[in-house]
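URGENT: need a sanity check before tomorrow's submission.

F., can you look over the Pyrophosphate--fructose 6-phosphate 1-phosphotransferase subunit alpha record below? I want to be sure the sequence and structure line up before it goes out.
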Amino acid sequence: MDSDYGFPRELSDLQKKRTLYQPEIPPCLEGTTVRVEFGGGTTAADPAGAHVISQAFPHTYGQPLAHFLRRTSKVPNAQIITEHPSIRVGVVFSGRQSPGGHNVIWGLYNALKVHNTNSVLLGFVGGTEGLFAQKILKITDEVLSSYKNQGGYDLLGRTVDQIRTIEQVNAAKAACEALKLDGLVIIGGVTSNTDAAQLAETFADSKCPTKVVGVPVTLNGDLRNQFVEANVGFDTICKVNSQLISNVCTDALSAEKYYYFIRLMGRKASHVALECALQSHPNLVIFGEEVTASKLTLFDITNQISNAVQARAELEKYHGVVLIPEGLVESIPELYALLQEIHALHGQGISAEKISTHLSPWASALFEFLPPFIRKQLLLHPESDDSAQLSQIETEKLLAHLVENEMKKRTKEGTYKGKKFNAICHFFGYQARGSLPSKFDCDYAYVLGHICYHILAAGLNGYMATVTNLKSPVNKWKCGAAPITAMMTVKRWSRGPGISPIGKPAVHPASVDLKGKAYELLRRNASGFLLDDLYRNPGPLQFDADGADAKTFTLSVEDHDYMGRIKLLQEYLDKVKNIVQPGCSQEVLKAALSAMASVSDILSVLSSSSNSPGLQ
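C-alpha cells as predicted:
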C-alpha cells in the first residue's frame, strides 16, 4: 500500500497518443441537467428466492429501474435535476484488474466537475484495505493525465477484494462517515457488487448518508443478467488473448507436430473461452458448462480429447490447439468433490501436508491417481469466496498428461497407429490484464463513470450503473441504473443428508448459455474447426481505422436490450389502461379480459418452469 500509486507514468509514444483519445458519451448524459425516469419496482429473477432476498435487504429490495433521458425526451413524469450542490465521492477498485477500469474513474471525475467544479473525488489507495484504513488519493486532472485510456489498476491498486465481515463493513462505514462521503463507487465483478449491495443495505439501515454504487468491471465476463449486457475489460481481454491463441494456431500449423493446450482466465464460467474460440477458431474447446450439464468425468474428457487426436491423425494431422477455461477443474464432478473435502479440512485447521491422510477412501484414491504437481496445487488454500485458486491449478497440464498416457495405451493396444503425441501447455492469465484497453472498453468504462454521477445526483443507493444497446454506436446507447438486489439469486445447497437446503442472496456469476446464439454459432462450426484447421487471426488490438470498432461476437449475436423491452411493455400496458376504462364497450372489456387471462396463464407457467428451485 506504500507503492507510488497516482504518480505520473513513463509512457510510450502509443500510450501518450491513447491519453489524448476522448471517449464519447451518449446524448442522455450530455449537459448539466440530469433527467431520470423511474419504472416500476423490480423483483428477483427467481420468484422462489424473492422472499429471502427481500428479508435480507428490506431497505434496498424492490426499488425501481432508472432510465436517464436525453434533453429532447418527452416523458411527463421524469424527474428533472438542475441543482447540483458540491458532493464528495469515494471510489475503490475491488476485484481482478480489468482493462478500462481507470476510465470509470476518469468518467466519474469529469461528470462531477461538469456539474459542480467544487465536487471532490477521492480514490482509496490499495483497494478495499485502503478503504478500511482511510488511505486516500485526491483525484485531479494532473493525477489522471497519464492514466486515461490505460490498462491496469495502478492508479490506486487493489488488495483483498472484499467488504464482507462485520469488521470490514464497520470499517468501510467509519471511513465514509469520517471523510463525509456522499457516495461510494465500487468497481468490480459479481463478488464485489454483492458486497456493494450489502454495504448499501447496511448504510440505509444505520442512516449513513453515503450512497453506494456498483460498476460492472470484470475480465471474466460473468456479471451478465437481464440488466447488464457486458463487463468492462472483457472485450480487451478476449481480443488480446485471441491474437495470442491465433499466433499459436499458426505455429501449430507450421510445425505440424505439437498439440497446444491453452488455459484461459475467466473463473468458473467459460465466457472468455467461448469468445476466444469464435475469434480464433481453435480445434477444440472444453466448456465447463458442457461438462456440468453432461456430468462428464475426467475419464470422459480425456477420451473426448484423445478421440479428437485420433480422428485428426487419420487425416495425417498431428497438431492442434485445445482451449480450456480455468474453471474447468470445478466443473468436473469428482475433482470438485475432492476440492470440497480438501477445503473442509482446511477449515478444520488441518495443514496442507497432512490433508491427504484425512481424506475419505474414494477421495484418497483419486488424489493418489493424480500426478504430483496437481496434488500440490489442489492443496492450496481456497480464495476469499471459498473457491479454489483456479489460476494456480494447471488443468491444461493435467489433461495433456492424461491424453498422452491414453494415446500410449492405444498405441500399445494397436488401436492408434499414428505418430507420437506431443503436447505444449500455456496459461494465458496475466498477459492481457494490463493491456491498453480497446476502444470499446475505453468508451464503455468512461460512460459508466458518468452514469455513476447521475445515480448519485438522483439520490439512489444500492444501484449498478448500466448501459444497454451496446452493439450499436455510442450515440445510441441507453443509460440507466438497476438495483443490485434485482440481479440476485439464492443458490441452495445441502450440508448433509436430511438437512434443509440453505443459501444466501448474492449476485452469482452467469454461466455460458448452452442455448444462446453465441454458443450455437460455435457448435455449428465445431466439426469444421476440429478437422479442417480453419484458424483465424484477428491480429493485434486496433485503436483507429479498420477493426477499432469491432465488438465481441458474444455481444453482437445475442439478443439484448432487456431494459428497452421492459419500457416497451410498460408502454403497451399504459395503452391498455387508457383504452379499458369505465365506460368502454362490453366487447372491448371482454377482449381485454380474455387476452389478459391467456397472457397471465402463459407467464405463470413460464415463470415456474424456468425458475424452479433446485439444489446447487
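My own read: The first strand starts at residue 34 and ends at 41. The chain has three domains: 13-75+87-233+437-489, 234-433+513-557, 563-602. If you see anything odd, call me.
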